[in-house]
Amino acid sequence: QQQVKQSPQSLIVQKGGISIINCAYENTAFDYFPWYQQFPGKGPALLIAIRPDVSEKKEGRFTISFNKSAKQFSLHIMDSQPGDSATYFCAAREAGTALIFGKGTTLSVSS
Amino acid sequence: NAGVTQTPKFQVLKTGQSMTLQCAQDMNHEYMSWYRQDPGMGLRLIHYSVGAGITDQGEVPNGYNVSRSTTEDFPLRLLSAAPSQTSVYFCASTPFGKGYNEQFFGPGTRLTVL
User: How far is B26 from chain A (nearest CA, A)?
Assistant: First the structure.
């Protein structure tokens, strides 16, 4: 059973556009929802994270929207740039346990 | 700080061979873990440790062993390599506890089993 479902698998966005990646979860005990960014040949790196007591968090061009009742959260990348081209993973964690990752979204931003 | 380091970066094994993937961190993090990454599968947890002397299994532990004799090191052993273990392996560390702590990943080891 896949605990964190991520969509779409791949995404192509024009430069300056908005990239949106969605994730859904089932475990209501999850209390931490990070997004990781991974460039080819590198390890994943934390991009932005949110807790379930907050509905939105913004850091620069990156925003997490969190809907606790729907058990969904999403990553929005505003003014997408070619340098944002990477694989993005959503994740979730229950306190004191390991991160559970979605399957990833490959984002390509065309110039 | 060097962060999380992994060696080797690349490795080719023949079926049945054994080897150890090395992972070290210099941030005094209690929690360390090993993931494998396969195309379209995301990152799947192999084994993890909440401190020296304590290890536990993750989602895909079969064919792998771990030990944690020190806080800094968390090696992953492949006992008898199989082609299904061809993957990219990532080690990660984080301060343990209920806090919302960032998990730091190493650069990965790309393993091919022929």
Answer: 17
Sign of the four-CA dihedral B64, B85, B44, B28:
positive
pLDDT at B97 over 90: no
Of A41, A43, A100, the CB nearest to B105: A43
Span B14-25, average pLDDT: 97
pLDDT tens-digit profile of B23-56?
999 999 989 999 999 988 889 999 999 899 999 9
Q: Report helix, strand or coil for B85.
A: helix
Q: How far is CA A98 from the centre of its chain?
A: 17
Q: Is A5 exposed, middle or buried (0-12, 13-18, 19+ CB in 10 A)?
A: middle
